[in-house]
């Protein structure tokens, strides 16, 4: 038996040896054609449930301890995510990162095990076809993109207003090269030996297809951009202009859920009514929050 923790494929070793080389994404007459293979195996109901349960969850607390609001990048919480520890499968609470293709379909999920506060002893495992998508794919609709390795690195940059995606590793597929070709790209992989090597190779490939690309490695050896921004939250990423973040209805809904998990009494009733109004399609959410949100916090 074999199992690939990067793409999620499992089976008999003999079958693996007979497998043809997988086809990568390509363009046909200017139209994006996704990589060949089975349709996504991550149900929409699972994705929606994980994202709904994220605000106020242990995963939310973990990300906020790292200076990240996971709602902005669509993170999720799974209280019983499967991990392979040694030779045994165990189910543990996890923060879940979703990878999407250019059509917005979730093609892979990556879970990071939640441990006790302050512990760096974590495990992660991926299911699906991570090479067919990226984390925070909607950024590819803009003119500038920062390419990172890990989801938390991209999320930390997004938190400061920078347009970042995560590969979930160091490998960039052909379909993504083509998607980046007409944009200005900053390569922000980790500043370690494998990261620098992969960044240099990616720089050459992007420039060969006419892309305006530059290296944007963290300033110190061994760092990623999440490390930099945790140590110095006011640090400005050089040469890249942050985009002002405009809160959405989902941001307000997430803030309500966080408070509802930790409050009681009159404030809880008020928030419950507001959540009902949001679900009923009440539109002026941001205006309401700007006007009453601060007062609500003083009640809690």
Molecular structure report:
The protein is of the alpha/beta class. It has two domains: 44-231, Dna Topoisomerase Vi A Subunit, Chain: A, domain 2; 249-299, no CATH class. 36% of the residues lie in helices and 21% in strands. The protein has helices at 13-18, 44-53, 58-65, 151-159, 174-180, 193-208, 225-231, 249-262, 265-279, 285-299; strands spanning 2-3, 10-11, 26-28, 31-33, 76-85, 88-100, 106-113, 124-128, 134-135, 144-148, 164-166, 184-187, 212-215. The strands form four sheets. Strands 5, 6, 7, 8 and 9 form a five-stranded antiparallel β-sheet that branches. Strands 11-10-12-13 form a four-stranded parallel β-sheet. Strand 12 (184-187), helix 6 and strand 13 (212-215) form a beta-alpha-beta unit. It is globular and about 60 Å long. Keywords: ATP-binding, Helicase, Hydrolase, Nucleotide-binding. It comes from Fimbriimonas ginsengisoli Gsoil 348. InterPro entries: TOPRIM_DnaG/twinkle, TOPRIM_dom. It holds the Pfam family Toprim_3. One of its GO terms (molecular function) is helicase activity.
Short description:
Residues 20-43 are annotated as: Disordered. This protein is of the alpha/beta class and 300 residues long.
